[in-house]
Amino acid sequence: MKYLRYLFLALVGICLILVALANRGMVTIKVLPSEMAAYLGQPLSYELPLFVIIFAAIVIGLLIGFVWEWFREHKHRAEARAQRREKEQLAREVKGLKRKNNEGKDEVLALLDDSAPAR
User: Per the record, what is one GO cellular component (predicted)?
Assistant: First the structure.
């Protein structure tokens, strides 16, 4: 399975290198339309190779997707956190009840009762 992962990563890397080699031409990226840039006094444009724009768009898309998903799953994380707190509180309560139930018993029997699974 480890080799399949390495093979997949190698194929992705080769594909990215081929895309970069095929798209080395310079393109002009304008941050604002010409009419709006005129109000600022300078045109906000940059000359970059096309593959940089493609890779930046992929990375930005992934980041937006990750953030979107993180916000979408907030309710699931909150519910899991509440259930974990409830489980810990119930475990403490069971431990206290076992301790109270085993008062006055032989220590060996109390240890066996503590280690017995709940029914």
Answer: plasma membrane
